[in-house]
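Sequence dictates fold. Below is an illustrative record:

_____
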Amino acid sequence: MPECCGRFFNSNGMRNHLDNSYAHRNEIEDHKEEQHPPNYCYGCKRQFSNLNNLKMHLKSSSHKGKNVKCPWCITMFTSLTGVCTHLESGSCTSGINRTKIDNYCRQVDPNHIFTNKQIGWYEENSSSTTTIATVAAWDGNRYRCYLCQRGFYNLTALNQHLASPVHRQKIYHCPRCRREFTNLSGLVNHLESESCGAFRFNTTTSGLAFVDQLRIGQ
């Protein structure tokens, strides 16, 4: 029978003693810090700044591999968010882009379960107009975005900023927690995280069924 602190214990008693005894509390904390650091990936021997970053890492290709295929081409991704981002960027050979996705989602969601009800929503997103900055955006120090006053060191960076969804209306929302998003990939990323329990992605197949419903017109 093991002995500790002048007392004898059975296996369960010893475990309880080590876990709860004030005499061993500092030893246990030191062991946890050295051997079990917070937000640590033991497979990759990497520590992350917070739990969310660790969860995202565990869902990355380093652990899951690229096993989610785009329904319209041969490109593989680690998640449905990757598929949506791929489609929104217009890089898919199908010709699908963010505008087509937004218009399609509006058409299939007349009751606004996951899209916001907004006047002029359709017209805004169906337009092919693109905002482009010129050298006139230079203020003597940086190229300045006239919408948010954020400065950029070069014109290319400013135009990439203008082409991004950052200044678009938030046209999607989570059906459960009502958090809003500017694009579908943001909503899908939120759902995949299961942070509010609105949707459960138990398997790759169940997740693909979600994207597979997006029979967007070419």
